[in-house]
Design brief:
alpha+beta, four-stranded antiparallel β-sheet, Chorismate synthase, AroC fold
């Protein structure tokens, strides 16, 4: 399966082409729209979220609610479309620290940094969610569920429930995608004060995939490792600067006896969470050992930097004049962690689906189901 993302922040829209996805998979368009809506929600988002009302447009590959086996093209339009009103003489020549402005302009030879921003913009994460909305539905057919939870914002940590899936409705209805009401109140107050100060906040998101069967991925080649693919895909999300699987960096400070998950044998096993005769009472490895899924929950934690576009901008240099200047302020969010939790769900679903199809794949959904069973 191959994916190609396309589009810009202020042109006609953005989307994704998915090649190699099987025929006969039932897809509900509204489920994708719900995910798009969740990406736009959450406390701390900017004014553009009030302007855009993202809805998926299926251009190819799905008919009558079923995939056809040919390339699937999903598209979402931009209401804030400036293609016809773009002023090519009004160039942006001052790069914003923390953005792709300077490096991107040098790489592609642009004298207008808006041309970098159009593609590097986090608005393009809508494309990730378009694909994720498709793959989440596919995985549910195999009892694989995914949830993203905001774990911390600006140093304020929220308690993670022992079983986040049991709190799913509470988490997705929360303005900060958390089940911890006390931490939520503190985070909201911090975001409010930070906005008044013209600043921004980062944090961490924990994403969990439950029901992933044993055997996705391989230890045979580096690019066949499931953990390597997850790390790369999560790191590719705008603002993400760190990725951990399982306990991640905490394991570097533990002894071996405190780091690994003891293997136990079940008395009985069959379906659901008892698909294999073996289990682990702990999950420090995050559901992956040697690059291969081991049947436990796959857990990925990401650390996201604060948005670089500040109400009180940082210092920069005008590349046209060579003089010191102040970075421009462009409409932006104060905190993207609620949206990031939706994006990470989509990225998790994308990677898991790709490796699932490598193990059980066929041309049709029925073929895959037979192989899986």
């Amino acid at each position: 399966m191959r994916l190609l993302y396309f589009g810009e922040s202020h042109t006609d829209g953005m989307g994704v082409v998915i090649e190699g996805f099987p025929a006969g998979v039932s897809i509900k368009e509204e489920e994708i729209n719900i995910l798009l809506s969740r990406r736009q929600g959450g406390y701390g988002r900017g004014d553009r979220m009030k302007m855009e009302k993202d809805r998926v447009k299926i251009l190819s590959g799905i008919l009558g609610g079923k995939t056809l086996g040919d390339p699937i093209t999903l598209f979402v339009a931009n209401r804030d479309n400036r293609r016809e009103t773009w002023d090519h003489d009004k160039k942006q020549t001052i790069p914003r620290p923390g953005h792709a402005d300077l490096a991107g302009s040098i790489k592609y030879g642009f004298d207008d940094m808006r041309l970098v921003t159009e593609r590097a913009s986090a608005r393009n994460t809508a494309s990730l969610v378009l694909a994720g909305g498709l793959f989440i539905q596919f995985l549910k057919g195999f009892d694989i569920d995914i949830i993203g939870i905001v774990e911390s914002i600006g140093g304020i940590k929220a308690e993670i429930p022992d079983n986040p899936f049991a709190c799913y409705d509470r988490i997705i209805s929360s303005p900060l995608r958390t089940a911890d009401g006390i931490a939520e109140e503190k985070m909201i107050e911090l975001i409010r004060k930070t906005k008044e100060q013209g600043d921004t906040l980062g944090g961490t998101v924990l994403t969990i995939a439950r029901g992933v069967p044993v055997g996705l991925g391989s230890y045979c080649q580096p690019d066949e490792r499931l953990d390597a693919a997850l790390a790369g895909a999560f790191m590719a999300i705008p603002s993400v600067k760190g990725v951990e699987i399982g306990l991640g960096f905490e394991l570097a400070h533990r002894k071996g006896s405190e780091s690994h998950d003891i293997i136990k044998k079940r008395d009985k096993y069959g379906t659901g969470d008892k698909k294999t005769p073996y289990y682990r009472e702990t999950n420090r490895a995050g559901g992956i050992e040697g690059g291969v899924s081991n049947g436990e929950d796959i857990t990925v934690r990401v650390g996201a930097k604060p948005i670089p576009t500040l109400g009180n901008p940082l210092s920069s240099v005008d590349l046209l004049t060579g003089e010191e200047s102040t970075a421009p302020y462009v409409r932006s969010d104060v905190c993207v962690l609620p949206a990031l939790s939706v994006i990470t769900e989509s990225v998790m679903a994308t990677v898991v689906t790709r490796f699932f199809l490598l193990r059980y794949g066929g041309d049709t959904y029925d073929e895959i189901l037979k192989r899986y069973k």
